[in-house]
């Protein structure tokens, strides 16, 4: 169904549909084993059923496209209630656990991230759109905890982010290799252990 | 120089030299961008200047060979003095930091680890020869700390290993993507922050 001209089409506008088709095509090709070096804009355009100019209108190059496509695999951060630092941190860390549960996502991320030195712009883009917002959110929660006196005034917030996120990363990587499920309460257990040291006394 | 029969050759025995040539050839091919799926025993044999049977005498298949070759990239664990839990943990974590400093090592690990679902035996082998001994060593230090009363009696030792190693992993991964050097005292800072929660009071 194509509606043009006078009426706005039901559902998504056409440019948004095209963008989704391009992102899906990119992820599908990588998920099928195409490395970022091998991936071509031609192949993405053909798979998405769009012209190359439609892609170049939105993305300057392949690395920006792949970076943005990967970012769509990351679940959006939950809106946190801001009740206690503990609750907010558990909510954020649990998003990382949930991201790791999908085999396709793990597969695509592994292939796309296997040549970091060859595609620095891809990592910069992905970092900016997917990783940095999560750090900003976690930094805000920890900063609020220090300001309210819940957390130690001398807490190194960047190290605290690394400790919380890194521990979850350790478990999700191990689970990816062993195909073992992650316990539902893993985020809470990590946060509770970390807070023993972070809390004011 | 080949010495056979009566006298033992100076330097390494021939089988050990062949083994080193095979491992080096494997790592070189991967470092040049050959994925594990593409890598063939024929190519390794040609590069190492040995026959295929020499390889098969030592490794049953490609995955075992690659797993063992990757394990050689991990520095041996230091002998720890066993004075304080803190000193021993810092020594172990600093090995992880040092591993990450070599661009070639990071590159090879990234390529080899990009298809975990296709090569489960490789991961099992690598885990058994390179990762598990480190966990065993860290588990022993933490267990000794709990037994001596330095650490909390209710410490979850597996979670503590994940927290220490995962935080270092977080930094080494970030450094790999950003090409930022890791501070010399990073291991000590991670251990000191973690011990705030781990220590008995």
UniProtKB/TrEMBL annotation, chains A, B:
Which species is this record about? Acrocarpospora pleiomorpha
- Look up the DNA-binding region in the UniProt entry and give its residue ranges: 40-59
Q: What is this protein called?
A: TetR family transcriptional regulator
Query: What GO molecular function terms would the record report?
Result: DNA-binding transcription factor activity; transcription cis-regulatory region binding
Where, by residue number, does the polypeptide cross the bilayer?
A: none
The UniProt record lists the HTH tetR-type domain at 16-77
Which domain of life does this protein belong to? Bacteria
Concerning Pfam families, the annotation shows: TetR_C_11, TetR_N
The reply on keyword Transcription regulation is: yes
What are the protein's UniProt keywords? Answer: DNA-binding, Transcription, Transcription regulation
Q: Which SUPFAM superfamilies match?
A: Homeodomain-like, Tetracyclin repressor-like, C-terminal domain
Q: What InterPro entries has UniProt attached to this entry? A: DNA-bd_HTH_TetR-type_CS, Homeodomain-like_sf, HTH-type_TetR-like_transc_reg, HTH_TetR, Tet_transcr_reg_TetR-rel_C_sf, TetR_C
């Amino acid at each position: 169904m194509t509606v043009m001209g006078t009426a706005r089409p039901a559902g998504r506008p056409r440019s948004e549909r095209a963008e989704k088709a391009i992102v899906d095509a990119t992820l599908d090709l990588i998920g099928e084993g195409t490395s970022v070096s091998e991936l071509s804009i031609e192949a993405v355009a053909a798979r998405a059923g769009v012209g190359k100019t439609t892609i170049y209108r939105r993305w300057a190059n392949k690395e920006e496209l792949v970076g943005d496509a990967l970012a769509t695999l990351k679940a959006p951060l939950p809106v946190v209630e801001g009740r206690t630092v503990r609750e907010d941190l558990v909510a954020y860390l649990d998003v990382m656990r949930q991201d790791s549960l999908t085999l396709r996502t793990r597969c695509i991320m592994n292939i796309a991230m296997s040549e970091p030195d060859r595609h620095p712009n891809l990592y910069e883009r992905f970092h900016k759109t997917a990783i940095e917002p999560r750090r900003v959110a976690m930094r805000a929660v920890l900063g609020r905890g220090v300001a309210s006196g819940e957390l130690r005034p001398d807490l190194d917030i960047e190290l605290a982010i690394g400790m919380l996120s890194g521990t979850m990363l350790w478990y999700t990587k191990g689970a990816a290799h062993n195909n073992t499920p992650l316990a539902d309460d893993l985020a809470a257990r990590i946060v509770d252990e970390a807070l023993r040291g972070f809390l004011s006394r």
